[in-house]
């Protein structure tokens, strides 16, 4: 157990969450009406500087596949996407589509939870004692009609910035992977940055990607309990690190972003409870960072232009994304 973790009272998650929320909260920082939280750290100058990082034109999709073979196991009614064809080549060949002059076509529909695969958690996704981002009562913000204030559509043009990969699996792990239950502390995040060099320095407005290797193992061994089970992830003690670096967002290759099992005797996603409703930080989960990590290791460059716009479903508290890293 590291010094960071030794200061945790594992029997008191309520107290630890309250203390972290008070110390690292951002309520009112961008005004009472704010709906963007830490995305406010990204401005035009930041995007221009990020665009200058593209020197080779190499592009990497950081999305997992969206299909019936995905990671979900039905927990909390989350299923893998169900893809159904409405019109097919068979229909066209039979001539029953009703189009003139030989025209044929295909059409399809998808049913899926919005957090079935690579996605962003929106600011309406998690509450802390009945409060959402900026202190709003949860019952006034998220109703049966969706998120009425901080729906994911408000971020449609915001996720464009400098991305930084912190390959914790490669630096801290064995064969590029961290074991389940490994809690990545602030000191270890700094250790990864030191090992990777200047291009891995993290600053204001960056989108930080933390690779643990958990997805790598799921691909090799099967999904198992990838969705909701044990995993390496960020320690609860990283809340201060995330806050002090003024990052715009953070994403990982895991289902839950933070370490699982969580670090308290009885707790469920306590870091989520601090960073989403109190800090206003956006969290990405189930990102595929492996190909990007290999490329970063090969040229020792760990920063890049990142564009990661969610599908702007009105009122959604999370949304799928196909992030693209450009180097």
Textual characterization of the structure:
- The chain is built from eleven helices and 15 strands.
- The chain has 327 residues and is an alpha/beta fold.
- The chain has two domains: 3-74 and 114-326, Glucose Oxidase, domain 1 (3-Layer(bba) Sandwich), CATH 3.50.30.50; 82-111, no CATH class.
- The strands form four sheets. The protein has a nine-stranded mixed beta sheet, with helices on both faces. It has a two-stranded antiparallel ribbon with strand order 2-3.
- It is globular, with a radius of gyration of 21 Å.
- The model has no long low-confidence stretch (mean pLDDT 96).
Main traits of this protein?
nine-stranded mixed β-sheet; 17% strand; Glucose Oxidase, domain 1; 15 strands; 2 domains; alpha/beta; two-stranded antiparallel sheet; single chain; 11 helices
Percent strand equals 15-25%
Q: Spans with pLDDT under 50 lasting ≥5 residues?
A: none
Query: For the largest beta sheet, what order do the strands appear in spatially?
Result: 1-15-13-7-9-11-12-4-14
Radius of gyration from the alpha-carbon trace, in angstroms: 21 Å
CATH class of the largest domain: Alpha Beta
DSSP strand tally: 15
CATH architectural designation of the largest domain:
3-Layer(bba) Sandwich
H and E string: HHHEEHEEHEEEHEHEHEHEHEHEEE
User: How many distinct folded domains?
Assistant: 2
Major beta sheet, specifics? 9 strands, mixed
Named CATH topology of the largest domain: Glucose Oxidase, domain 1
Helix vs. strand class? alpha/beta
Going by CATH, the homologous superfamily of the largest domain would be Putative cyclase
Portion of residues within helices: 25-40%
Mean pLDDT metric: 96
**Global shape:** globular
Helices, by number, come to 11
For the terminal residues, how far apart are their CA atoms?
Answer: 37 Å
